[in-house]
Specification:
CATH class: Alpha Beta
Strand order of the largest sheet: 1-6-7
CATH topology: TolA/TonB C-terminal domain
Strand content: 35-45%
Number of strands: 8
Number of domains: 1
Largest sheet: 3 strands, antiparallel
CATH architecture: 2-Layer Sandwich
Length: 104
């Protein structure tokens, strides 16, 4: 399982914007019943990242399995972020991250 997000960079002169980025991304614990079957799904999470790096998360595209969604949201709440930077200062921002989940 990995996560995919994107960053926007400025001109290197301190006047641009750098998107928030996850610096600690613990994986969810896959429920036992799901570990016994092949599973390939993608969820999308939206993080509201504060200027201090704290975050609030919601699944904007959950999986079809409520138990997996619960496990996923519990793990996502433990993620930690480096905040977005604008004009050299940390700022609040929102970031959506695709989270592919694969069990074989």
């Amino acid at each position: 399982m990995g996560a995919q997000d994107s960053e926007t960079h400025g001109d290197g002169l301190g006047g641009g914007k750098l998107s928030a980025r996850a610096i600690f991304k613990p994986l969810p614990e896959i429920p036992e019943i799901l570990r016994r079957q092949k599973l390939e799904v993608v969820a999308v999470a939206r993080f509201q990242v504060a200027a201090d790096g704290g975050s609030v998360v919601e699944l904007v595209q959950p999986t079809d399995d409520p138990a997996l969604n619960h496990s996923l949201i519990e793990a996502l709440r433990r993620w930690r972020f480096f905040p977005a930077i604008e004009e050299g200062r940390p700022v609040a921002s929102s970031v959506e991250i695709r989270i592919p989940i694969s069990v074989r």
